[in-house]
Specification:
Length: 376
């Protein structure tokens, strides 16, 4: 058991390429922390610095209360699962899993016990005599995880371990990793660019962009109270809709004018946005908060309506994505598949503004977030 503390860590590659910029993050004992962000955001570099596979330019990393900046990877009490599995092709599954223990001169009986215990946990007992080429992608991934389990490390590190699997298998393996975390009761740091993986796996999520942390919070808080426009747009499928417009006040109410129509903002936004009336702003609203007016049932619907044109309809089983446009903006709505909406229709949509957000168009900061939402 161990906590991992990343304190003002920076990584600069030759040529003054800044990969990680002063990241500070505390991964709690037994927590599953997910680092998520687009390619090149610094998440894998951060993980590799924790593992000791990359040197730290500035800052410190502690594992279990011990600063490990100058500690070799093999002595950090960590185990890493890589994206490409990194299995030895000439070895059986058993020997792949046992290899690290043999190097550390564990007794043969202890090695056998650990390998068979890990194989049982992962459901690969029948595969121990096979070689990697005889395994499916999912089976190879389980072997790679098993090789980490037998080490019984204080911290598990996962670097996009599911990215090479097909969609169905990724869903299955996500569930297996969730169960594995609960069963092993060990600290885990998991890197992914897939925000669905982040939302389903993490106790907390650390969203990164351009080598910096944007927000650290539990998944639902990240989703409901994003700290800025980047987090709001990155987390959620389909992504949040963003409309550029102006804040206006009339008859004691606060409104967002998007150019071809306006919608009423929640009462609680008044104190937060009063000083910005008449200024430009960005409205953010998720696709599931938009519905055809006739079926919306949204409170204050008369003041939260926009006229739109239906451009594309994508059926997805029990729901559908409807691509819409006003004179100034494109939007996506996620609605029940039984709504009668056809391409080319001119309809009115109701927006559930109670869960909307207003962002600063220059800095991207969420002007309507609570202080807790913006805290790292």
């Amino acid at each position: 058991m161990a906590e991992v503390i990343i304190d003002r860590v920076t990584k600069v590659y030759p040529g003054d390429v800044l990969a990680v910029a002063g990241v500070s993050l505390e991964i709690r004992d037994l927590e599953l922390m997910v680092l998520v962000g687009p390619s090149g955001c610094g998440k894998s570099t951060t993980l590799r610095m924790v593992a000791g596979l990359e040197e730290i330019t500035e800052g410190t990393i502690s594992i279990g209360g011990r600063v490990v900046n100058d500690v070799p990877p093999k002595d950090r009490d960590i185990a890493m699962v890589f994206q490409n599995y990194a299995l030895y092709p000439h070895m059986t599954v058993y020997n792949n899993m046992a290899f690290g223990l043999k190097l550390r001169r564990y007794p043969k009986a202890e090695i056998q016990k650990r390998v068979h215990d890990a194989a049982q946990i992962l459901g690969i007992e029948s595969l121990l005599e096979r070689k990697p080429k005889a395994l499916s992608g999912g089976q190879r991934q389980r072997v790679a995880v098993g090789r980490a389990i037998v080490r019984k490390p204080a911290v598990f590190l996962f670097d996009e371990p599911l990215s090479n699997l097909d969609a169905k298998l990724r869903v299955e393996m996500r569930a297996e990793l969730n169960k594995l975390h609960r069963r092993l009761e060990t600290t885990m740091i998991y890197v992914t660019h897939d925000q669905v993986e982040a939302m389903t796996l993490g106790d907390r999520i650390a969203v990164m962009k351009d080598g910096t942390l944007q927000q650290v919070a539990p998944p639902l808080e990240i989703y409901d109270r994003p700290a800025n426009k980047f987090v709001a747009g990155f987390i959620g499928t389909p992504p949040m809709n963003f409309l550029e417009g102006t804040l206006a006040a009339e008859n004691g109410g606060l409104y967002f004018d998007e150019g071809s129509g306006r919608v009423a903002l929640p009462e609680r936004f008044k104190a937060l946005l009063e000083s910005r009336i008449g200024r430009k702003a960005t409205l953010g609203i998720r696709p599931e908060l938009i519905a055809p007016r006739a079926v919306a049932g949204t409170p204050n619907m008369q003041e939260s309506v926009l006229g739109v044109r239906v451009n594309v309809v994508e059926p997805l089983g029990d729901e559908m994505l409807v691509y819409l446009s006003t004179a100034h903006h494109d939007l996506i709505a996620k609605v029940d598949a039984h709504h009668e909406v056809a391409v080319g229709q001119e309809i009115e949509i109701a927006l559930n503004m109670a869960r909307s957000h207003v962002f600063d168009p220059e800095t991207g900061a969420n002007l309507t977030a609570t202080p807790a939402a913006a805290a790292l």
